[in-house]
Amino acid sequence: MTLTVPTWLTLARIALIPVLVAVYYLDYRWSNLAATVVFVAASVTDWLDGWIARRYRLFSRFGAFLDPVADKLMVSTALVITVQHHHTVWMALWASVIIGREIAVSALREWMAELGQRAKVAVALVGKVKTIVQMVALGFLLYRAPVLGIPVFLIGEWLLAAAAMLTLWSGFEYLRAAWPTLLADEPRTGDEKNP
Length: 195
What we know:
By secondary structure, this protein is an all-alpha fold. The protein has helices spanning 5-24, 31-56, 61-85, 89-114, 125-143, 152-183. The model has no long low-confidence stretch (mean pLDDT 86).
């Protein structure tokens, strides 16, 4: 298996996860800035690997599998350390909604792929908007310190709430697209017992 440039970028994004955790918990004044820089760098590689893959047609099955995994790992890690540091009911709720939706949609996509209907649950525009809002929110929450009197953390909280709402909306869209398949009767074999 030959690793393409986009796949190397995806692997770099995964490698940045322990770096994010380490710098976030450093006991220095600049640790919040360092954590934000690491997270932003990871977010840029997410955009860059997709752009390079499309521009130069550097697609691979391994890369297609790894890219969404890397995204979910980075976002989940950022959410977990943010909730641990700012453990409020609302923060835990928004994080649970986002992580729960990611698990549910991943399972739904895998199941639809097994049925050969993966295209029905392709990424929609609302999912892309959700990703942008979520990344900006997490960047603000990781930085957390006010800038020129601007309450960065508070803005991050509101953006995370908006991301959670968009997460529910996009999750509903995925479910709506898959709903006819979910309701379809499976063919029964002769030895299957009635439930």
